[in-house]
Design goal:
The complex is a heterodimer. Chain A is mostly helical. In chain A, about 70% of the residues lie in helices and about 0% in strands. The two termini of chain A are about 30 Å apart. Classes of the chains: A mainly alpha, B mainly alpha.
């Protein structure tokens, strides 16, 4: 039973205590680049969770027969295989989202979270804990993306999942010039920096 | 194939565009991990910046060749020289795998060569080379160049400009962080938190360039593709 608990803890610590974005500051590129629509953020988060968990699993399976000198290239090759799978799936079943994500799907290969987990954890532990660790890291990344995406879409477009949340009647128009207006900064890239900076701030305050 | 419908002025415009207007760090957010980890000292930042410019330029050119002759659509037609009809084969799905292999392989070779022939340079630069393989700016620039279908020369200038822009951004940030290290910041925000906010402010400053379109070839009639994620949404 004790072993069971410790296996699960691989998964759960990744979600909060050592969250990859908020603590390790990894995987920032895509966290900033794709989060101004919630649907895109969710897709990206789930894709990364898929790639991380399965690459960790296979890196861990091969950990005893991979020579140390070529392990980086081996890991990159394993990771790219799963990224190609995700890319082809997205192009087949969610073409509009894959268009918006464009190069960011390919960039999951160099997403530091995936490399960090395979290099830091998966090459030292058996496949199942490695899989759970990768899944936890990916989902930890996904929930941060979800929060940032939700804030940015709600304030930037007044919508969530492309569904209008803020009533259209509140908006400023010719008759009510002092009505509500979308927060244009939230649509633009720098907003993500401020939001992640703020999340790190809140996280550190909660922790101490 | 070399210049496409770009003339020299367009290519120069592309350099400015890639360096300042679409700065890789501050407008496209690529290469953030290395940027955040290695921007505490100006000297380190400069070393890393130079290494990125070099690796990005060379692997950008190599990957252009890979796209042109292996993975692009109808790129295998040259095989007909050997009597192989490969017109309908599309290896596009292998692009990620080949690109990252080219980058990783090139960095590995470069490391060996520098260590052998320029030990002094290796001591100052070699440290950063393995970091560069996983720098998403490199792969990102290669993928952007491919999706935008640049001819050879514009592609070369584009990857060079992206590298220069990355170097500029990390050097600026390192200079700020050297000062930040001795300032009195709120405890919970100290370290990464304040770095994010500083980067956000810098990105806002760089947004002042938005709207200047220099990269479009004057000779072409087709409207320029949306250059940035935000515009295509």
């Amino acid at each position: 039973m004790a072993k069971q608990m410790s296996t699960m803890s691989y998964f759960s610590t990744q979600l909060w205590e050592s969250n990859q974005i908020l603590v390790a500051i990894l995987g920032i590129c895509s966290a900033l680049g794709v989060t101004n629509r919630l649907s895109v953020s969710v897709t990206m988060g789930l894709s990364v969770a898929f790639v991380t968990s399965f690459s960790c699993f296979f890196v861990s399976l091969l950990r005893k027969i991979t020579p140390d000198s070529v392990r980086m290239i081996t890991q990159l090759a394993i990771i790219s295989v799963f990224v190609i799978i995700i890319d082809q799936l997205l192009q087949a079943y969610a073409f509009s989202i894959s268009k918006v994500l464009s190069v960011f799907v390919g960039l999951i290969i160099t997403n530091c979270i995936v490399m960090g987990r395979t290099e830091g954890m998966a090459k030292n532990v058996p496949p199942i804990p490695a899989f759970l660790d990768g899944l936890g890291a990916g989902l930890g990344y996904a929930w941060v993306l979800f929060v940032i995406g939700a804030i940015r879409e709600l304030l930037g477009f007044g919508q969530l999942f492309n569904y209008q949340i803020i009533p259209l009647g509140w908006y400023a128009n010719a008759q009510h010039p002092d009505g509500y207006d979308n927060f244009a900064l939230m649509v633009s890239p720098p907003a993500a920096f401020f939001l992640i900076g703020g999340m790190i701030w809140i996280y550190n305050m909660k922790k101490t | 194939m070399w210049m496409g419908n770009y003339d020299y002025l367009n290519v120069f415009g592309l350099l400015i565009q890639a360096t300042l207007i679409e700065n890789f760090l501050l407008a496209n957010f690529l290469g953030m991990c290395t940027y955040l980890a290695c921007s505490t000292k100006l000297k380190t930042a400069n070393g890393l910046g130079i290494a990125v410019v070099f690796v990005l330029t060379v692997s950008g050119i190599l990957n252009w060749l890979v796209h042109k002759f292996v993975t692009g659509s109808e790129s295998l037609t040259w095989l007909s020289v050997f009597g192989i009809n490969a017109e309908h084969i599309d290896l596009g799905f292998l692009e990620f795998l080949l690109f990252i292999s080219v980058i990783a392989g090139f960095v590995q070779i470069l490391e060996v060569v520098i260590e052998k022939f320029a030990p002094a340079l290796y001591l100052s630069l070699g440290l950063y080379l393995p970091l560069i393989t996983v720098n998403c700016a490199i792969l990102g620039a290669c993928l952007f160049a491919v999706t935008r279908d640049y001819p050879f020369m514009p592609n070369m200038v584009y990857v060079l400009g992206s590298g220069l822009g990355w170097w500029l951004a990390i050097a600026l940030m390192a200079a700020i962080r050297e000062k930040l290290a001795v300032s009195n910041v709120i405890p919970a925000l100290r370290g990464m938190g304040i770095t994010f906010i500083m980067t956000g402010l810098m990105a806002m400053a760089f947004q002042g360039f938005i709207g200047i379109k220099l990269s479009r070839p004057t000779a072409s009639e087709e409207p320029a593709k949306p250059q940035r994620l935000e515009e295509s949404l």
